Each structure stands twice: as C-alpha cells, then as structure tokens.
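By way of example, what follows is a protein record of this kind.
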Amino acid sequence: MRFTTVILGLSAVISSATARDSITIKICDGRALAGDCISPSIGIQHECHNLFDTPVNGNVRSVKIPTGYRCRFWQSNGCNGGGTGDIQAPGVDDVSYPRSQSVKCYKN
C-alpha cells in the first residue's frame, strides 16, 4: 500500500514539473505583434520548435515571451546556424533577423 502511495505521489510531482517545462510564446509576421500570428507551446531547454508550414516561417517580425524566459530564433529548421541572439521577455516588436525558421527557448 505504501509503495502505491509513493508511486502516485512521484507521478504527480513529475507531471507537475513537466507542465511547467514549456511556455507559450506569440510569434507574428508583422511588427508590434500584428499580422498573422501563432502561439506555440515550446518545451524549455531541449525542444527545437520548427516553424515550417506556419505563416511566420521565414518571416518572424515580432515576438512576445513570458517573464523569466528568453528565446533564440534560427535561420535553419534545426535550431542551428545563423540567427538572433537571445531575445529576453517581454519580447521585441521588430526582430532584426526575420528569416527565422525555428526557435528554442530557455529559462533565465
């Protein structure tokens, strides 16, 4: 009986931690969060989110990022190669490197 209680408790802790390990950001193809936008949920630290087949692929102009996080946008679809530096929360209204095709986010 104790073993089951411990397993259930650990499962709840792991589920809670997993839910906090992703954030939702807003990415738009217009300046100042205008135009076509998407709001993907992105895993922190390890997930490379590909923008393929979205209206912002290759045309990222503005982003909104939650407090306590930063994101980096990449020219490739695999989060490597040329791209932006870290964009800190709350985001930016005029991305200096709009040709981005993927994004990766981190906790500060």
